[in-house]
Fold:
Amino acid sequence: MAKPTTTRAGTRPADSARRREILDAATEVFAEKGVVAATVRDIGARAGILSGSLYHHFASKEEMVAEILVPVLRSQVEAFDAIAAETSAPEQILRRLIGAAVAQTAADPHAARIIRNDTRHFGEMQGLDEVVRQQRAVTSRWTSAVKQGIARGRFRSDVDPSIVTKSIGDVVLGAYRFMRPMGRMPANQVAEQLARLILDGLEVR
Amino acid sequence: MAKPTTTRAGTRPADSARRREILDAATEVFAEKGVVAATVRDIGARAGILSGSLYHHFASKEEMVAEILVPVLRSQVEAFDAIAAETSAPEQILRRLIGAAVAQTAADPHAARIIRNDTRHFGEMQGLDEVVRQQRAVTSRWTSAVKQGIARGRFRSDVDPSIVTKSIGDVVLGAYRFMRPMGRMPANQVAEQLARLILDGLEVR
Amino acid sequence: MAKPTTTRAGTRPADSARRREILDAATEVFAEKGVVAATVRDIGARAGILSGSLYHHFASKEEMVAEILVPVLRSQVEAFDAIAAETSAPEQILRRLIGAAVAQTAADPHAARIIRNDTRHFGEMQGLDEVVRQQRAVTSRWTSAVKQGIARGRFRSDVDPSIVTKSIGDVVLGAYRFMRPMGRMPANQVAEQLARLILDGLEVR
Amino acid sequence: MAKPTTTRAGTRPADSARRREILDAATEVFAEKGVVAATVRDIGARAGILSGSLYHHFASKEEMVAEILVPVLRSQVEAFDAIAAETSAPEQILRRLIGAAVAQTAADPHAARIIRNDTRHFGEMQGLDEVVRQQRAVTSRWTSAVKQGIARGRFRSDVDPSIVTKSIGDVVLGAYRFMRPMGRMPANQVAEQLARLILDGLEVR
DNA sequence: TATGAATGAGGTTTCATTCAT
DNA sequence: CATGAATGAAACCTCATTCAT
Structure:
C-alpha cells in the first residue's frame, strides 16, 4: 500500500489515531449515503465529534474523500502491475486481476462502494485529481489485459473491448455486496465465481 | 411553516406539452448530476424557466423523479412478463430479457443512468414507493429467469444465483454508456454483445 | 430533499444563555406579528443573529413556539390545580383563578398575546401537540370551576356554562393590554377589576 | 347597510354575482385560516376558480379583506348610532348595543371571526385604512356608552372604563362561537345571556 | 371571464466552514 | 483537540401577482 504520510496543503499532524478513526467513520458514511448526500454532521456524529472539530483534522470534506480513496486505488494499481509483470497467460492475468480487485473490495468494502456509486462526482470536486488519475490507471490496466487477450486470440474478438472492460469493472466493483458486512460469502469464493462467470459464461456447455 | 408535502389541488394539468419539456430537462439533469446533486435551479435553467415556476407543474423534485422513472420501470416489467410468457428455453428467455432491457436503455438512456446511479437514494426519498416497488419487480424477473435456467440444468449451478442476477443487472444497466448519446453503437448490437458475454463468457472455447 | 422535521442530534445544548436570548427575541416577534406572519429573519434580526444560525439552537420555528408556550401553560395548569385543591367557595376559586391567570399574563405578557391571537394555528402546526394539550387542560379547569359554582347555586344557572367559560377566558387573556409593557396598571389591580366585572357585573346594584 | 357600489381604484364591474360568490368564499377562508395564512389559492379553490382569475374581480387580497369588512363595520356603526340616538337609559343602551353587535355577528359570523383574530394585521396591510377607521368608530361607541353609564352613576366607577370597554368588545366578538355554524344557540338568546353576564355578573345575588 | 404559465420576491431550512474559547 | 456559536451561501418551496391566449 502507498503510505499517505504527507497530506495536501498544510494539514495538521499527518496521521494520528484520531484521524484514522474519523476517516473510518467518514468511509462508512460516504459509502452509505454517497459523498454528496453525506454531511459533515453525519460524519461527526458517527465519529463522536462535532462537525466543526473535523476541521482540526481535515481541511475539507473533499480531502477526506481523497484520503480514503487514493491509497486504495494506488494499492490496486500496484497490485495490478505486479500481476501483469509476473503473469503471461491472458486468462491467468484476468483471473488474477479479478482476484486482486475482489480482495481489495473485501479489505475495504466501503471504499469499493464509494467508487462504484460516486465516481461521477469526482471530476467536479476539488482536490480529487489524484483520485481521478488513479481511477484512470486502474481502468487502463483492465483495458490492456483484455486487449492483450484478444490480440493473443484467447479472448473473443466479437465483443468490443471497451464493453468488456467496463462490464468487468462494473461486476467486480459490485462484489462488495456479496461479502461481509453486506453479504456472507468469503472473498476468494466470490472472486472465483465472478471469474467463472466472466471467462466461461453462464451457460453450461 | 411546516412544508406540506401533499400535492396541491387545482394545479397539475395531468400532462401538458410544457410538463413534458420540463420532465425531459429534469431527466437530463438528474442523469448528469445525480438526483441529490441536481438542484431545481439546474432543472429550471435547462428548461428555460425559473426554479419556482417548476412547482406550477410538479409538487416536488421527488415527484419529477417518480414521474420519470415509474413509466420506464413499468414498461420494463411488462416487457419482461411478456417475454417470460411466450418463451420457454431459459437461454432464450435470458437473451430476450437482455435485449429488452438494453432496448429500454436505448429508448431512455438518461433514465437508465439515473437508475444505475441513484437507486440507493430512492428508499429515503418520499413519494418514490412505486419506483421502489417496480424496481423490485424488475429484479425478481431477472432472478426467476436465472433460477429457472439453473433448475433446468441449462445454467451453471456453481455460481450463486444472487451473484449472477446482480451482475447481469449491473452490466445491463451500464449499457447506456455504449450507445448514443454517450456511445456510438446501435442498441441491438450492444444487446447481442452483452448476451454473448454473459452467456458464453469472454474466453474463446 | 424532503425536509426532515426530526430534531438533529448533536445540536440542542438544552438551554444556554444564548438560547434564552433568542427565545426572548422570538417571543417578542411572535407576539407582535403573530406566529404566521413572523419570519425567522425577523427573529434573527431581533436576536442579532442570521436566520440560519437560529437552527443551531432550535430545530424549527415551531419548536420555538412550543418552547415559549409549554412552560407558561404548564405552570398555569399547576397554579390552577393548587387553587382548586386548597379553596372551597366557588366564587373564591374563580377569583383566585382569575388572579393567577392575570399574574401569569403579567409575568409573560407576550406569551399571553401569542396564545390569544394564534391558538387557531396551533392545531395545524407540527410539534405543538403538547401546547394544544395544555391549552385543553387550562380550559377544563375554567370549565369545572364554573360548573361547580353553578351546581352549588352560587353562580347563575341562566347562562350557558360554555359561554361563561369562554367569555372569562377571553377577558383574562386580554389582560396583557392593561399592564406593562402595553398598559400601565399593576397586575393585581387589573385582576381585581376583572374579577369584580365578571362576578358582580357592570351595573351598580 | 352601507352600499359598496364603488370600489377603490379602477376595479372592474363593481359587483356582479360572481364577485359576491368569490367574496363569500374568501370570507370563509379568511375566517378559518386567518388573513395572513389564507392564500389566494385557498380562496380560488373554495370559489371554484383559479387563483389568477381572482384578479379579474379584485385588485389584491387586501382589497377582498376591505370589501368584506367595511360594510359590516359601517353597518355596525350606523346601528350603534341609531341606538344611541333613540335610547336614554345607559343600561338600555348597553343592552341594545350588545344585541346589535351579536346580531351582526349572527348575520356574518365569519366577518366577526376575522375581526376578532386579525385586527392586528390591518394596520400594516395596504388599503385597509377605512377598515381601521371604522373599527375605531366602533370602539368609540362602546367607550362612550360605558363612560356615559359611569357618569350617570348607573355603571360602577371602580373599574377602569378602558378595561370595561375592551372586555365587552372581546366577549361580544367571540359570540360567533356560540351560534351557527359553529355553535347551536339562536342569536338573540346569546345576546341576552351575554348582556346578563356583563351587566349583572356571574354571581347570584 | 377564465385558464395556464410564468415571474420574482421571499419564506424556512441545510450545510460546509470558521473561529474564539 | 474539542466545543459551541456563528456565518453565508445555497437549497427547496410558496405565494401574490401578471399576462397572453
